[in-house]
Amino acid sequence: MNQDRRLAVLRAIVEDYVATHEPVGSRALVDRHHLNVSSATVRNDMAALEDEGFIAQPHTSAGRIPTDKGYRLFVDRLTEVRALSTPERRAIQNFLDGAFDLDEVVDRSVRLLAQLTKQVAIVQYPSLPRSSVRHVELVALLPTRVMVVVIASTGRIEQRTVELIVPISEDTLASVRRAINNAVQGLRMVDVPDAIVDVAKEFGPSDRPAVLSIVASLMETVAEQREGRVVISGAANLTRVPSDFPMTVQPVLEALEEHVVLLRLLGEVDASDEPTVRIGSENDVEQLATASIVSSGYGGEGQTIGNLAVVGPTRMDYAANMASVRAVARYLGRMMTPQ
Amino acid sequence: MNQDRRLAVLRAIVEDYVATHEPVGSRALVDRHHLNVSSATVRNDMAALEDEGFIAQPHTSAGRIPTDKGYRLFVDRLTEVRALSTPERRAIQNFLDGAFDLDEVVDRSVRLLAQLTKQVAIVQYPSLPRSSVRHVELVALLPTRVMVVVIASTGRIEQRTVELIVPISEDTLASVRRAINNAVQGLRMVDVPDAIVDVAKEFGPSDRPAVLSIVASLMETVAEQREGRVVISGAANLTRVPSDFPMTVQPVLEALEEHVVLLRLLGEVDASDEPTVRIGSENDVEQLATASIVSSGYGGEGQTIGNLAVVGPTRMDYAANMASVRAVARYLGRMMTPQ
DNA sequence: ACTTGGCACTTAAAGCGGCTAAGTGCCAAA
DNA sequence: TTTGGCACTTAGCCGCTTTAAGTGCCAAGT
Q1: What is the pairing mode between strands B120-124 and B230-233?
Q2: pTM exceeds 0.90 for this model
Q3: pLDDT in tens, B253-263
Q4: N or C: which end of chain A has fewer CB within 10 A?
Q5: Contacts of A261 in chain B (CB under 8 A)
């Protein structure tokens, strides 16, 4: 019993099924792939693969389709993530370069990813706690009301308003601004609290309460629990395949509305810089039991500041999607980190 | 031939069809509504209504369904937009009050609207040109690079970076900041260019080029062509009705991805503060030919600063959706304008 | 120890005819 | 103008048969 050929058969089944969306039989297999054996031999291999749980039959007299476990083996052992071609890469580059503020970068990325993969694409905004501080601005709206604005290195802006018990003068506010920026500029957000905890000590007792309020508000802002926004594109791609309709589309659409769930899913990526694949039921969200997720972090030099993914049916072109996800993640990371 | 009864029959047909999603016949009609006539009479009325194009038969031996023209008459003459109940209004209020920054207000609004109507909801971010200035901040990132940040009264923040040919000192920048804020604070965005065109004259010849660059950048920022972002929620609601599937869902999902198109649609609202309804083919976007849109502007006292809408099948509950759209628009407008 | 051709068996899908239920249109009478 | 009555239309359903695709297994071949 030939191990290599068995794997080749599995690979052929996955490829054909992804291409045709129909259960693939032994006859069709030998025709289309030049396995130099007869259909009966393939049938024996198939029976073995089925025993091991890599493929299954929808009903007794039908061809085989890969199981989640089959796809898993395919992804782990039978897939080379081929790089995109140079023109493709150039196209991505050009498209993203056209954007000039953060919203637009994210928006273009997600649309691009949806278009490249013909699946649903998800991009998370760069997470605040994991990026660094470019500048902190304090704006006096009233003598007792200050707006704290944090500008992150990624271009993301976060703002919140704080009420003071005692009024603060413009001059004092300017000193506070200077002191804070000296302390935090360039730091990672997570290190900000430690860095500013002593800022208030530099000020006299009359100003101290106000300064403390401001510092506290800044700490809250950078801690920011809501890990952030996600943007989705390509929902219409879910309907491209006429197949087994509402049954499968409805729950996926519902899951996509739950941004909290998505963020959790997006967070579960390998540390490696290769895309992570989660197939069907591997995915612990019930509504996505018939879907696969190809996700990756993005950021610079090992620092992940956000994640992105595509979601599609388990019968997707894994190699192509992994390549697209990886490429977009790289360019996106590059745009967020330097300058 | 009794005009009033004919309208009553149309109303009954619309109501039943919206409730059941099935063609409604003369028999069922007299049973469910207490029209005090026989089914034969109703049949005669139906024949007349069909001649006039208000209803149609899917096939010869089926009941009738309303045409777009029928829905139009229904909306114009037979619908009272009843106000929401006090508990409903209170629930909306509470839900929206929980939000504390602009993103969250918009996000909650769109989710709320989707939930209330069980349709797809769309909310446009408050348009910058139509709101007013709370504060302008200038941040020196480098001596020759300044970030211009505009904070609108709605809480929306817009930012862009400008490169200077000559460096600018922190002190000068502070003067510019003061001069600009004196000139523009509280103004409507559209009036900003006129107000700041002369700011540069206050500065000496060595600083003037830099100031001019900053002013120009500010002008660009407030002019901001891209009328803004839209947020969508409730796409999963499109799949609630198992009916005539992919045919009708696919194009709608596609249309929803085209934010530019949506913005155009959203823009076409009546000046009145009642919701605008566009039914099926009235809508000039081909992909939405089987959909109806209930839209409304929001803002304070006649000032529209943004729009919102729900999109659903032509067979929707117009009265309920109009009520929800109106209510959410009011609360949203109220949250954006005062303070 | 595999591989292969052959063959009986299974089953979903497609096609077909008859029946039913819902609904219409029209007419003649009230 | 309304109504009861009646002939007519037709989509949808049920049960039946046929077809095509595919399997599993066995006995023979290498």
Answers
A1: antiparallel
A2: no
A3: 999 999 999 99
A4: N
A5: none
